[in-house]
Design goal:
This protein is α/β, with parallel strands linked by helices. It is about 35% helix and about 15% strand. It is built from 14 helices and 17 strands. It has helices spanning about 35-50, 75-85, 100-110, 130-140, 160-165, 175-190, 205-215, 225-235, 250-260, 305-315, 340-350, 360-365, 380-390, 395, and strands spanning about 15-20, 30, 30-35, 55-60, 90-95, 115-120, 145, 170, 195-200, 220, 265, 270-275, 290, 300-305, 320-325, 355, 375. The strands form 4 sheets. A 6-stranded parallel β-sheet has the order 5-6-4-1-7-8, with helices on both faces. A 6-stranded parallel β-sheet has the order 11-10-9-15-16-17, with helices on both faces. Strand 9, helix 7 and strand 10 (about 220) form a beta-alpha-beta unit. The protein is elongated, with a radius of gyration of 22 Å. Bound molecules: adenosine-5'-triphosphate. Adenosine-5'-triphosphate (ATP) binds near residues 302, 360, 361, 381 and 382.
């Protein structure tokens, strides 16, 4: 599959002001970046724009400042770290309005090959509403727009969609291309058997992806909080486990669909359960294992059990292509991480193409030390899911066609 959008290879940026939307939404602890994968992933595009003599104006959101300046969500630490990673100064254009007098002056003073970073785009209330004023402000800063922020491509905001519509030349960057190609090829032309694994807690959000994946994959494995509405739909007693009753009928439909299509749908056969969710999340916790159809009323399933872990790992090992989104349990707690570890380990050990769909699954794989054993770890959780659902991503659609 190839993306039918113009990329930075199709344009000439020499001497031009290039606004490049990146996804620098990195976790911060006391002003320190605790996971810089997204910064590293953005470097190829930034380096190319520098090498081609563009005036490179980077922008991104960080966290949820909800439309006003929040010093703890300033992108200043990102500018500092990017300077180190690039070996060249990335000037931080501090500006509470993002595109205010300071930012404009900084752009005005740029030479070819210079790099600046604007302040957190979500300091502006219009950003997440795709409001015209901020899109216009951003467009006024640049001649060319590059979108390399896969992580926000499923949203239509000023800094990825609004601005693209106001600039004649709007293209995608290398990271965007790479993400779409990996995910697209895995789903559209998979080397079979193709196994998809879903887990995590955002059950309602993720149910939609099931229907599409069932049509593409050979085996669909469902663990984590996702599994419980399915188990309930089978008539099992699931106690106090995570469940969304409105989705039970949908789960029944999906089980019927799997059967009709002759696809394997694997659900946990046992679960690690506790009386309540750990608080704080890594607190010591007392757990017991129950069969998936016999969870006591006062217990919640918080990880897949050992038999399920073994079955899931075996199915993953038999695959030639695996796409995984969402942990198998509350992996942040060591007692409840065993199912997620078993699956991560199985993927690390296969020579199958392994694609991790971002968000918490990517964090889990990296945290467990299996990151470099995977073929591709997506920088976008929600975006990768919507893409796997078969939806068009607005951030990609807004770029010029080839
Ligand atoms: P994101 O959507 O942020 O990109 P993700 O898709 O990888 O991340 P989420 O749906 O957000 O995953 O779910 C991850 C969370 O699910 C983890 O914090 C984990 O603790 C929680 N989780 C996993 N299994 C269960 C369970 N059985 N019950 C409750 N929570 C669970």
């Amino acid at each position: 599959m190839s993306l039918n959008k113009k990329s930075i290879d199709d344009i000439n940026v020499k001497g031009k002001r290039v606004l490049c939307r990146c996804d620098f939404n990195v976790p911060l602890k006391e002003g320190k970046i605790t996971d810089e994968n997204r910064l590293v992933a953005a470097l190829p595009t930034i380096k190319k724009l520098i090498a081609d003599g563009g005036k490179v104006i980077l922008c991104s959101h960080l966290g949820k400042p909800k439309g006003e300046p929040k010093p703890e969500l300033s992108l200043a630490p990102v500018a500092a770290r990017l300077s180190e990673l690039l070996g060249q100064e990335v000037k931080f254009a501090a500006d509470p309005e993002v595109v205010g007098p300071n930012a404009k002056a900084a752009v005005e003073a740029m030479q070819d090959g210079d790099v600046i970073l604007l302040e957190n785009t979500r300091y502006r209330a219009e950003e997440t509403k795709n409001g015209e004023a901020f899109s216009k402000d951003l467009a006024s800063l640049c001649d060319v727009f590059v979108n390399d922020a896969f992580g926000t491509a499923h949203r239509a905001h000023c800094s990825n969609v609004g601005v693209a519509q106001l600039v004649d030349t709007a293209v995608v960057g290398y990271l965007m291309e790479k993400e779409i190609n990996f995910l697209g090829n895995a789903v559209e032309n998979p080397v079979r058997p193709f196994v998809a694994i879903l887990g995590g807690a955002k059950v309602a959000d993720k149910l939609n992806v099931i229907s599409n994946l069932l049509e593409k994959c050979d085996t669909l494995i469902i663990g984590g909080g996702m599994a419980f509405p399915f188990l309930k739909a089978k008539g099992y007693e699931i106690g106090a486990s995570l469940v969304d009753d409105e989705k039970i009928d949908y789960c029944k439909e999906m089980m019927e669909k799997a059967e009709k299509l002759g696809k394997k749908l694997l659900l946990p056969v046992d679960a690690v359960c506790a009386k309540s969710f750990p608080n704080p999340i890594d607190a010591e916790i007392e757990v017991s294992v129950y069969a998936a159809d016999a969870i006591p009323a006062d217990m919640a399933g918080l990880d897949i059990g050992p038999k399920s872990a073994e079955e899931f790992a075996a199915a993953a090992k038999a695959a030639k292509t695996v796409v995984w989104n969402g942990p198998m349990g509350v992996f942040e707690n060591p007692v409840l991480a065993k199912g997620t570890i078993a699956v991560a380990k199985a993927l690390a050990e296969t020579d199958a193409t392994t694609i991790i769909g971002g968000g918490d699954s990517a964090a889990a794989v990296n945290q467990l030390g299996f990151g470099d054993k995977m073929t591709h770890i997506s920088t976008g959780g929600g975006a990768s899911l919507e893409f796997l659902e078969g939806k068009e991503l607005p951030g990609v659609a807004a770029a010029n066609d080839k």
